[in-house]
Amino acid sequence: MSKVRRLTGLVLAAATAFTLSTAQGAAQSTPVDNLIRAWAQSPHARIEAEAFAHWDEDGAVPERCAKCHAGLGYLDYLGVDGSEVGKVDAPAPIRSLIDCYTCHNAEASALHSVSFPSGATLVNLDSSARCMVCHQGRQSTVSVNAALEGLTDDEVNSELGFLNIHYRAAAASLYGGEVKGGYEYDGKTYLGKMRHPEGFDSCIECHSPHSTNVRETQCATCHKDVAMRDIRTSQNDADGDGDKTEGIRAEIIALHERLLVEIQAYATNVIEAPVAYNSHAYPYYFADTNGDGVSDGDEAAYPNRFQNWTPRLLRAAYNYQFVAKDPGAYSHNPHYALQILFDSIESLAEQNGSDISALSRP
Hints:
Layout (H helix, E strand, L loop, with lengths): L1 H23 L6 H10 L9 H4 L9 H7 L1 H8 L21 H4 L2 H4 L4 E2 L5 E2 L6 H4 L8 H8 L21 H6 L27 H4 L9 H4 L28 H23 L4 E3 L7 E3 L23 H14 L4 H4 L1 H19 L10
Antiparallel strand pairs: 1-2, 3-4
């Protein structure tokens, strides 16, 4: 109970300080008030958001989710107040926000290494380690391969289910092949960490740790007169449209869209089980019962989940979701995103008979 009392007190104090600083106006705000104001506008403070409210009817956040969806669960994982380090021992209270004390405590300050789902461990990290504990995803090349071991690439297996990377796995994107968050095909090489110049090379150097906003004004020091989403980091024309001036984000979007085309062509023509994708409905891939290529209404419901997975289709669908759930992939590690997209397209195109000669792999 000591953690609950301590955290509750801090939340109330923060809320009071934010209310007072707002009433007084920015001119009279203290630096602490400004930090609290930034936090209050961040996703970590949105108490009504699905990330915190999903378990309201259950009355608690289960151990498997509490590390990242409850401030108290995160503290439990860190070993605050004597709990076992690296493990959430009990369900956490609902709507327990990621607040000041979640990240500002002795155990969090001592955190400089993080293990990823693939088994890879990053060491000698700065304060960004606190971010990476949660923003790393839940699956990897290793877990996908384990699920597919011994199965034939193009044979439907009714026991297979979709493996979901989860949300905002920015650290998995950033470190690429070092942590194998995307699905990496045998015989291919993949970019490791996306290296930025000194001072712009970690989570907290690119994002405000309190608001989580990108420090775009600092990016403009090098990337002058161009919006972040229009930054070009390669002369490789990955999408084959002949335009080498468009931002790298546009290249990723084009290959991402092409991958869905190949996924649906494979499902319809090769295994004769049409599939549709819905980014807002779990588990994202559904049987396309009317063959219109989209899942909406009754189609986008769990009982209609897609259940005709082959190993080849599952690998590609996993990578489609990996990129879909990291909207900042174009900045975190654009070449890694393009590599896993291209390889997924290539794998399916071999079966679909698609011409991908215009595409290129970075």
